[in-house]
Design goal:
The protein is α+β, with helices and mostly antiparallel strands. It contains seven helices and 24 strands. The protein has helices at 27-34, 90-103, 116-125, 211-229, 247-253, 261-264, 454-461, and strands spanning 71-77, 108-112, 129-132, 147-150, 154-163, 184-192, 198-205, 234-239, 259-260, 267-269, 290-294, 299-305, 327-332, 338-341, 345-350, 364-367, 376-383, 393-402, 409-416, 434-442, 447-452, 466-473, 481-484, 493-497. The strands form four sheets. The chain has a seven-stranded mixed sheet. Strands 5-6-7-8-11-9 form a six-stranded mixed sheet. Strand 1, helix 2 (90-103) and strand 2 form a beta-alpha-beta unit. Helix 2 packs across helix 3 and helix 4 runs parallel beside helix 5 (247-253). It starts with 26 loop residues before the first helix and ends with a strand. The relative contact order is 0.11. The model is unreliable at 1-65 (pLDDT under 50).
């Protein structure tokens, strides 16, 4: 096939959605080349048909194909609000930025150069989004590298900002190394509300002048990802002010942690990956400075640089939302894995005259809270060494029932302060101290009952890889419940999703 010269492409191809120019003679060839592209509708006419005009903004979704079960993540340098002339002014570009985000159904995106008023504008314009991150001066007015996310899809478990300076301080610091400006990175630990899966996002803007600062920032980002996120899936995005052949890019892309989504996506558009446009709707070259990196746990279906521009904006055509094109990636979390563990040890203990007796070999565990000699509680120990440090859910499941009545009795879960016990020697006298987690009502229906012990299992997976759990009746119930032990038919289980 004849190689296409970018500079000779002169006619707009609306049918493919990627805004490129071609002569009439080349048009048929180009249509064949781009027919398979699934990221479509990149050219946006600003009239009533496509949604933007001087007086009207329609917010319907575009025809971009997003793989079911995947997220659309994006990085977007929206150009700070400064006294730009004409259609480059933020007041003109603001609805175009909004339209891009809605049109391509961003689920989560990082912005760069966004001043406080622009952050406020985006939150006002984008229903169902929230943001994390502070300005680089440690306030709400200065430039942000904020992360926006759909609140219907994600919960933020923790978040913060650190400065691109030695030691990654969490309070403002001046420009470091040879940087011209203070630079920051915003991070968040997110959980998918539907699947409970957890992932981390880091968003930054490297300095435009300091070569040393960019390299040191890349090193710092890798260290912070390893320290904060550990084994969790990670997305790192941002305007790095360095292209795909630069030292900082190579440091990131060749690390054991990250790889650019361009390298991973089987479908990527357009062929030119240039992201800084300098207000030119058809820039030349192939220099990508806006990036989305992922850890190896992600699968990447598609990757695009969105060359959208708009017509009929205050009488002008080919108007750009920013001097950077947004970059989007269609990505998927690894499918969750469920592991079911049985106890290495379990036993109940009894008070009063039985305080030195051991019941570790019995097939039935008894739990009761009552007068002296009648109180009993059950202990369970699990080996977590096969579980990675990416636990999103953990439930203790034990098979049994209330054998005295049809009433509900609250059986409370606890964690033991030590794992230094075995089923062959544990007694009421020597059993560990236990701390409350939560309660589950139990009636006379014989079945598996469940207790959520996620936080304790997460803590122990990151610790000694052994967890000891306890079940005991809340005070005053005085009803006997019986449960199968690991020597019984329906063994206790610790069901972990990771």
């Amino acid at each position: 096939m004849k190689k296409l010269n970018h500079f000779s492409i002169k006619k707009m191809l609306y049918t493919t959605g990627i805004r490129m120019y071609a002569s009439a003679l080349m048009k048929k060839t180009l249509l064949l080349v781009f027919a398979a592209i699934l990221f479509t509708n990149c050219k946006k006419n600003a009239g009533e048909e496509n949604g933007i005009s001087n007086t009207d903004l329609k917010t319907g979704k575009s025809s971009v194909s997003v793989t079911p079960g995947h997220y659309t993540f994006a990085t977007f340098n929206i150009r700070q609000d400064v006294p730009d002339p004409g259609t480059r002014a933020w007041t003109v570009r603001r609805p175009l930025v909004k339209d891009m985000i809605i049109k391509y159904s961003f689920d989560l995106f990082g912005v760069q150069e966004a001043k406080g008023n622009q952050i406020t504008n985006l939150l006002s314009d984008l229903s169902g989004f929230a943001k994390i991150g502070t300005g680089r001066d440690g306030n709400s007015t200065s430039e942000h590298s904020a992360i926006f996310y759909k609140t219907a899809k994600f919960t933020v478990l923790s978040s913060g900002t650190f400065w691109l300076s030695p030691g990654a301080p969490t309070t403002p610091t001046g420009p470091s190394w040879d940087a011209d400006y203070k630079r920051i990175c915003t991070w968040g630990k997110f959980q998918d509300k539907a699947t409970t899966q957890i992932f981390w996002v880091f968003n930054s803007h490297f300095d435009h002048q300091g070569a040393t600062a960019r390299q040191e920032s890349a090193n710092l980002i890798l260290n912070q990802i390893a320290a904060k996120a550990g084994s969790w899936p990670v997305i790192f995005m941002g305007d790095l002010n360095c292209n795909q052949t630069s030292g900082p890019f190579v440091t990131l892309n060749n690390s054991a942690l990250l790889q650019e989504t361009w390298d991973l996506a089987p479908i990527k558009t357009p062929a030119l990956r240039v992201t800084y446009n300098g207000w030119d709707p058809t820039p030349s070259g192939d220099q990508q400075i806006d990036h989305i990196f992922v850890t190896s746990t992600w699968s990447v279906a598609k990757r695009a640089v969105l060359w959208d521009n708009y017509d009929n904006i205050n009488g002008y055509n080919d108007v750009l939302p920013s001097d950077h094109f947004p970059v989007i990636a269609d990505v998927k979390m690894p499918d969750p894995v469920t592991t079911v563990l049985t106890p290495t040890d379990d036993a109940h203990v009894r008070d009063g005259d039985y305080y030195e007796d051991n019941y570790g070999s019995e097939p039935v565990l008894t739990i009761k809270s009552g007068a002296v000699d009648f109180s009993r509680k059950a202990f369970f120990k699990f080996d977590l060494s096969s579980i990675p440090n990416t636990v999103t859910s953990a439930k203790l499941r034990v098979y049994g029932r209330n054998i005295e009545s049809t009433a509900n009795v609250d059986i409370k879960s606890y964690y033991a302060d030590t794992d230094n016990w075995t089923e062959d020697f544990i007694t009421w006298d020597n059993c560990p101290i236990a701390y409350s987690i939560g309660a589950t009502p139990v009636n006379n229906t014989l079945k598996y009952y469940e207790w959520n012990v996620t936080s304790r299992v997460q803590s122990e997976v990151a610790g000694d890889n052994i967890v000891s759990l306890v079940l005991h009746q809340t005070a005053g119930g005085n009803l006997t419940t019986t449960w199968d032990s690991k020597e019984g038919v329906n063994k206790p289980e610790l069901v972990i999703i990771h």
